[in-house]
Design goal:
single chain, 164 residues, alpha+beta, Ribosomal Protein S8, Chain: A, domain 1, 2 domains, 5-stranded antiparallel sheet, 4-stranded mixed sheet, 3 helices, 9 strands, Smr_dom, Smr_dom_sf, Smr/MutS family protein
């Protein structure tokens, strides 16, 4: 290190031009005209063309891995009886409700097994029997939240279920 060299201080945001060297102590002047004294081991030479010939390689930002299930559209279960069986007129009302409840429980188990987060259950508006069965079944389940899809409770024909 000699007079006129540019230096930077290690571990500080301070640099300047050497004005004098007294043994191990280097005196330099910063860009504002202040003088500073540091031992030689606390200074590094500031060579402006040092990094000129080094090629900078910009790496791509790593992508956060998101499971495919996260992007999957929510599962929709339509409990209208004609969608569940081939001959809906062959069943009485008790059998219909029992089959619909079994289908609901199977789909909830499927969602849990496959770690799905959301399920929409379409029960229709009707006389409310199917809706009551759906709500009673959901209330008996753990680790899930459910709410009407529409704001007005009596106009909603669907329930949204979110699994924990």
């Amino acid at each position: 290190m000699k007079i006129g060299d540019k230096v930077s201080v290690v571990d500080e945001d301070l640099n300047g031009v050497i004005t004098s060297v007294h043994g191990n102590i280097v005196v330099f002047k910063d860009e504002y005209g202040f003088t500073h004294q540091y031992p030689k081991e606390k200074l590094v030479p500031k060579i402006s063309d040092f990094y000129e010939n080094i090629k900078v390689v910009k790496k791509a930002e790593p992508q956060k891995t998101i499971s495919k299930k996260h992007h999957k559209n929510l599962l929709v279960l339509d409990l209208h009886f004609e969608n569940l069986v081939k001959n809906p007129h062959d069943y009485d009302s008790f059998e219909r409700l029992f089959i619909q409840k079994e289908k609901l429980l199977n789909v909830i188990a499927f969602c849990r097994k496959n770690h799905l987060k959301r399920l929409e259950i379409v029960h229709g508006i009707g006389d409310g029997t199917l809706q009551k069965m759906v709500w009673d079944t959901l209330e008996s389940q753990t680790n899930l939240d459910f709410y009407n899809k529409e704001i007005l409770h009596h106009q909603s024909g669907a329930v949204m279920v979110e699994f924990h």
